[in-house]
């Protein structure tokens, strides 16, 4: 830590390290002032003791752009500060990976004010979608917050940033508390931020706009078994009024917005590349799930759509998931290579029926 000096009448004096009695003091400090965490902006919101399967994580922070920061607090005196905190934090992160955004928001509400309540509809939907993308892609900032950083912990942070993918950054921060008379000082010492930012900058140069020609070329080179299905999907979708919208991403990602009869978006038919699964299609109706009853398509129209979807064998689990959760949960992905032209035509027909039936 850089030496801190205070000047008084009798000259320069070094304040004393005060320390913390409990780890919860560090947690409370960061919850009240989340901008103290590197990379977190002034408009961020925090949630303490966010419940996950292995237990409550100390702090979850969401900024105004929907970026997620997961924080675990430990004191240097705690023997977990070196090894167990690393495994613990990654265990928590794995629980957030692919978490349904509605589940995330519900768990947040159990611990504090609603994230979206104070926002207008447009801003709330933008924030919801940003959080959903980051949950789906596992894009998190992982922060180890302590009162002191030792060499082994610094080495681990450096190694994890070097070996992990661009979606995850790992940072350690020592929040040293000092006192001089009645004056208290907080002196943060950050480690790992430069390597995390360098990794993010390198990945940024690899991002591609996945428009139709670019995506088709990638599939042809990397997943040739799916190219026929992709062509059938694009052709059938265009005839039904579904137009492919590309995205800026490191991995192939694009989608067909699903609109109702009045032009309001209900969801997205996404085309994504998954390791081991190749090119897959995924239905997401988070927008529909968040709408009040009077803005949703009539119940009978939704039931017809689910019945149509269930009549396609490959999409029967998808229909069952939507039916059981009222469209709130993410549905299983379906590899494009297993879909016959007939199955793709039936899928698009079901979506067209949902889009064109009168309200």
Name some characteristics of this structure:
seven-stranded mixed beta sheet; 40% helix; 12 helices; 359 residues; five-stranded antiparallel beta sheet; alpha+beta; elongated; single chain
Describe the structure.
The chain has 359 residues and is of the alpha+beta class. It has twelve helices and 16 strands. Strands 3, 4, 5, 6, 7, 8 and 9 form a seven-stranded mixed beta sheet that branches. The longest helix has 17 residues. The N and C termini lie far apart (64 Å). The mean pLDDT is 83.
| Unreliable stretches | none
Discrete helix count: 12
Secondary-structure element series: EEEHEEEHHHEHEEHEHHEEEEEHHHEH
Oligomer designation: single chain
Residue-averaged pLDDT: 83
Main sheet properties: 7 strands, mixed
Structure classification: alpha+beta
Helical percentage? 25-40%
Short summary of the structure?
With 359 residues, the protein is α+β, with helices and mostly antiparallel strands. 40% of the residues lie in helices and 25% in strands. Helix 8 runs parallel beside helix 12 (341-356) and helix 10 (299-310) runs antiparallel to helix 12 (341-356).
Write the layout of secondary structure elements.
Layout: E1 6-8, E2 11-13, E3 16-17, H1 23-32, E4 45-52, E5 55-62, E6 68-73, H2 84-96, H3 101-111, H4 121-137, E7 140-146, H5 151-163, E8 168-180, E9 183-191, H6 193-204, E10 208-209, H7 212-222, H8 227-239, E11 245-246, E12 248-249, E13 253-259, E14 265-274, E15 278-284, H9 286-290, H10 299-310, H11 316-325, E16 334-335, H12 341-356
Parallel strand pairs: 6-7, 7-8
Antiparallel strand pairs: 1-2, 3-8, 4-5, 5-6, 8-9, 10-12, 11-13, 13-14, 14-15, 15-16
Helix pairs in contact: 8-12, 10-11, 10-12
């Amino acid at each position: 830590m850089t030496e801190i000096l205070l000047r008084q009448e009798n000259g320069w004096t070094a304040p004393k390290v005060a320390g913390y009695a409990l780890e919860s003091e560090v947690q409370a400090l960061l919850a009240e002032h989340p901008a103290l965490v590197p990379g977190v902006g002034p408009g961020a919101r925090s949630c303490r003791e966010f419940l996950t399967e292995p237990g409550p994580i100390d702090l979850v922070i969401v900024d105004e752009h929907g970026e997620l920061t997961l924080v675990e607090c430990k004191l240097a005196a705690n023997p977990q500060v070196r090894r167990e905190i690393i495994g613990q934090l990654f265990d928590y992160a794995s629980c957030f990976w692919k978490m349904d955004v509605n589940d995330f928001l519900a768990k947040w509400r159990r611990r504090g004010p609603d994230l979206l309540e104070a926002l207008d509809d447009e801003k709330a939907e933008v924030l919801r979608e940003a959080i959903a993308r980051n949950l789906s892609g596992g894009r998190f900032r992982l922060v180890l917050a302590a009162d002191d950083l030792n060499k082994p912990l610094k080495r681990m942070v450096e190694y994890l940033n070097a070996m992990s993918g661009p979606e995850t950054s790992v940072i350690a921060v020592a929040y040293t508390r000092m006192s001089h008379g009645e004056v208290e000082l907080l002196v943060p010492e950050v480690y790992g931020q430069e390597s995390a930012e360098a990794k993010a900058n390198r990945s940024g140069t690899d991002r591609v706009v996945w428009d139709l020609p670019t995506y088709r070329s990638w599939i042809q080179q990397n997943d040739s078994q799916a190219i026929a299905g992709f062509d059938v999907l694009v052709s059938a979708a265009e005839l039904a009024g579904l137009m492919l919208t590309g995205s800026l991403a490191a991995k192939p990602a694009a989608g067909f917005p699903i609109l109702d009869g009045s032009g309001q978006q209900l969801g997205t038919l996404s085309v994504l590349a998954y390791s081991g699964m190749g090119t897959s299609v995924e239905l997401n109706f988070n927008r529909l799930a968040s709408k009040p009853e009077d803005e949703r398509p009539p119940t009978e129209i939704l039931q017809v759509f689910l019945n149509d979807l269930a009549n396609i064998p490959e999409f029967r689990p998808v229909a069952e998931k939507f039916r059981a959760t009222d469209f709130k949960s993410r549905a299983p992905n379906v590899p494009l290579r297993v879909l016959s032209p007939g199955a793709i035509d039936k899928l698009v027909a079901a979506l067209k029926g949902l889009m064109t039936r009168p309200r």
